Amino acid sequence: MISIRKSEERGHIDHGWLNARHSFSFAEYHDPAHMGYSVLRVINQDVIAGGAGFGMHPHRDMEIVTYILSGALQHHDSMGNGSVISAGDVQRMSAGTGVRHSEFNASTEEPVHLLQIWILPKEKGLAPSYQDQHFSPEQKHNRWCLIAAPDGGADVLTIHQYVRLYASLLTVDNTIAGDIAVGRCAYLQVAKGRVLVNGAILHAGDAAKIEREAVLEVKAQSDAELLWFDLPVIE
Predict the structure, then answer these.
(1) CA-to-CA distance for 85 and 93, rounded, in angstroms?
(2) Shortest CA distance to 219 belongs to which of 185, 194, 191?
(3) Global pTM?
(4) Fewest CB within 10 angstroms: 13, 115, 152, 175, which?
(5) DSSP, res 26
(6) How far apart are CA 88 and CA 90, in angstroms?
């Protein structure tokens, strides 16, 4: 079974300095029908104007993943981390027992375009931690590139939940597939382009929930950028 979440159906705010789309209820946007999916709690597509951003603010007991689509984002946190992440970079921050951080556009002129993802951790009270990793276009070219997993690895971010997150840069007319194990479900987010997903057409900003199917199959109808969340089924 596939359920489509169209881009224009998402929550939308435009503060001038921030233009954001919310896949699930967040801040002023509240929709009881879209409170999350499996252990996914937030997927925000943010475009932050040059020189703007979020000042220091707190989080706890959440896995926060930031995926940069274009531009660059400057990060500082109460753990002492400071970094600038650019297109191709992915950042993971485990808020755990509590952390404060800020996020600002690293450019005074060009916007930064990103997906910020919140995932419920498998347990509360973890020690806060931080990672970032660059994933090249070659790693993602017409294949699923693992970017985050519970057991991490030398080139994979460690996420404290039974989630595996993949990315792909899929060129027109190419097809990729992935197995969905028993007891698992899939969430596909189309960041760019147009694709055919298990028989359904999705455009940039659209997403698909896929349940009770053994395979996720994606064919690009234009060059596309995709995120696939391999998630536990929550009864």
Answers:
(1) 13
(2) 194
(3) 0.96
(4) 175
(5) B
(6) 7
Instruction: Measure CA of the first residue to CA of the last residue in the chain; give whole Å.
Output: 16
**What is the distance between the alpha carbons of residues 228 and 146, in angstroms, rounded to a whole number?**
9
Q: Determine the longest span between alpha carbons in the chain, in angstroms.
A: 48
Contact 85, 64 (CB under 8 A): no
* 208 C-beta neighbours (distance < 10 Å), count: 21
Alpha-carbon distance of 233 to 235, in angstroms, equals 6
Does residue 225 contact residue 191 with C-beta atoms inside 8 Å?
Answer: yes
pLDDT in tens, 84-118: 999 999 999 999 999 999 999 999 999 999 999 99
Q: Alpha-carbon distance 115 to 67, whole Å?
A: 5
For β-strands 145-149 and 157-158, DSSP reports them as parallel
Residue 9, Ramachandran bin (φ over 0: left; ψ between -120 and 50: alpha; else beta) = alpha
| pLDDT tens readout for residues 4-13 | 999 999 999 9
